[in-house]
Design goal:
heterodimer; A: mainly alpha; 2 strands; B: six-stranded mixed sheet; four-stranded antiparallel sheet; 10 strands; about 35% helix; globular; transport (chain A); ABC_transp_permease (chain A); membrane (chain A); Branched-chain amino acid ABC transporter permease (chain A); cell membrane (chain A)
């Protein structure tokens, strides 16, 4: 029973983790907390719904189109809405993302209405069953798919950031835009790329979670809040921080839901996180900022 | 490709940097006023002056980081409106004030980013990394160490090494002696001399006038955004310099 809940927690947590990751990538490179992040993903879930359920296109093709659409949304938001004000007022960029949240919600409502639309799992086969002396663990195939995709995204992102010139340039821009320019790095381009990656990750998370939440304008609300929390818990700094943050929240949430109260699941887990942050304000893996002058 | 052809053309040019009536303003404050100077091929030229004289602003303007007026010609090409990130491709590299290394990246990655302009040429990068390790052995011993954990002197070596990775034709340095012990300053300036002798022209900005004069061919002394004195180091009257420079 406990193991079953922990496994379920890891699956939910892995979704929190990539949402956190998408937020952190954009934040580290451009310095913007994207409050519209979940809602940008929601639009992609509707794109999936439109192509797959309404037009009747192939599942995987619809999936790829919606992720590509997420990348496009990420690019457009950074290029069209944030960059024009970047050098004028950093604070207003955050307000812009809040405004965007409302616009996206309204747009989805206008186009697709507020019915809960259903989209199916990609994998519906016999669940994966693990029997051992302590009990039995059941993992639906879709959950294994989620875990696999999330893990691949994380590995790909780590390899990109550490092994390619462009990935290193991205880390350079995250540390100092001005110095990066002195190296010949086109920091505007790198910022665009970071939002493209972030947007694609958000779309992926939305399409993966959609079979459970259904597709509706506020479908990503919970995932966005938990993704933020995961990022904060991880220190809003690093990839490992986001992953550990996401998965710990997933597990805590599932255990609280099972053993304490389903209604209190979110409240209780957030309270635990507040407590952790009171003890360690820089987050689990964040570093206390020490600067050599 | 255009750039490559242009770089070939540059071989025959003697006056590599020519600045005419440079003006930099921060709002109503004029940091650099109508400044003109030049750097010849192979030269080591220093701009000296006290804090706030406009030296750093001059270099930042040349690197395209801040808005400026006036003409800046690099190898006879007007670069006053070229974007900052395109300037290193032309062979003009700024090693910024306070080193500006990337603290969360290791030594080797810092150097690789210095080679961003030649990133397609892996062999050349390998070769240049070895050259930098040859010049600064301490860096070679700390390849995998995070740059933020290096000592001040090592960070300065890293910043200079990084600036050399892309094989600049003119290396600009902003206060490389800042915050270093006299012994380290000597070491760094010896290295600069070596770099200059191997054919890279250097434009140096320094508060530490004595050490800068030891290695320079020519100097410009800046005061309130203008040049008070300029000339060949051998011809500079030390008393006048002291008067102007220290404001006595």
């Amino acid at each position: 029973m406990v193991f079953q809940q922990i496994i379920a927690g890891i699956i939910t947590g892995s979704l929190y983790a990539i949402v956190a990751l998408g937020l952190v990538v954009a934040y580290k490179v451009t310095g913007v907390m994207n409050f519209a992040y979940g809602y940008m993903g929601m639009i992609s879930a509707y794109i999936f719904f439109t192509f797959f359920s309404m037009i009747g296109m192939n599942y995987i093709l619809s999936f790829l189109i919606s992720v590509a659409f997420g990348a496009l949304v990420g690019y457009s938001v950074e290029r069209g809405l944030l960059r024009p004000v970047r050098n004028i007022s950093p604070a207003s960029m955050v307000i812009i993302t809040l405004g965007l949240l409302l616009v996206l919600e309204g747009t989805a409502l206008q186009i697709w209405g507020n019915n809960y639309q259903q989209i199916p799992n990609l994998l519906n086969g016999v669940p994966f069953i693990l029997k051992f002396s302590g009990g039995i663990i059941v993992i639906p195939q879709q959950n294994l798919l989620i875990l696999g995709l999330v893990a691949s995204v994380i590995v790909a992102l780590i390899l990109y950031l550490n092994l390619t010139f462009q990935g290193k340039a991205m880390r350079a821009v995250a540390q100092s835009e001005e110095i990066a320019k002195l190296m010949g790095i086109n920091s505007n381009l790198i910022m665009s790329i970071s939002w493209i990656i972030s947007g694609a990750i958000g779309a992926l998370a939305a399409v993966l979670v959609a079979p459970q939440t259904f597709v509706y304008p506020d479908m990503m609300l919970n995932l966005q809040i938990m993704g933020f929390t995961a990022a904060v818990l991880g220190g809003f700094e690093s990839i490992p921080g986001s992953i550990i943050g996401g998965i710990s929240i997933g597990i805590i949430e599932n255990l609280v839901g099972t053993y304490i109260s389903t209604n209190l699941k979110t409240t209780f887990s957030l309270a635990i996180i507040v407590a952790i942050l009171l003890i360690k304000p820089e987050g689990l893996l964040g570093s206390a900022k020490v600067k050599r002058v | 490709m255009k750039i490559e052809r242009w770089l070939k053309l540059t071989l025959a040019i003697e006056r590599i940097l020519e600045v005419e009536n440079l003006n930099v303003k921060y709002g109503p404050v004029e940091a650099v006023r109508d400044t003109s100077f030049n750097v010849e091929n192979g030269e080591l030229v220093s701009i000296l002056g006290s804090n706030g004289a406009g030296k750093s602003s001059t270099l930042k303007a040349l690197a395209g980081l801040i808005h400026h007026e006036g003409k800046v010609r690099f190898f006879e090409r007007d670069i006053s409106r070229v974007e900052a990130h395109r300037i290193p491709y032309l062979g003009l590299m700024l090693c910024p004030e306070r080193r500006g290394i990337f603290p969360d990246l290791n030594v080797e990655d810092n150097l690789l980013l210095g080679a961003y302009t030649i990133r397609k040429n892996r062999n050349l990068i390998k070769q240049n990394i070895e050259k930098v390790y040859g010049l600064f052995e301490r860096l070679g011993e700390r390849k995998k160490q995070l740059a933020g954990t290096l000592s001040g002197g090592e960070q300065q070596m890293l910043a200079i090494g990084r600036a050399l990775m892309g094989e600049p034709k003119l290396l600009m340095l902003d206060e490389p002696s800042l915050g270093l012990s006299p012994k380290l300053v000597d070491f760094i300036f010896d290295a600069l001399k070596t770099i200059n002798k191997s054919g890279t022209a250097i434009l140096l900005v320094e508060q530490n006038a004595m050490i800068a004069m030891e290695i320079s061919n020519r100097i410009y002394v800046m005061q309130n955004g203008r040049f008070a004195i300029s000339g060949n180091v051998r011809d500079i009257d030390f008393q006048t310099l002291k008067m102007k420079y220290l404001g006595v």
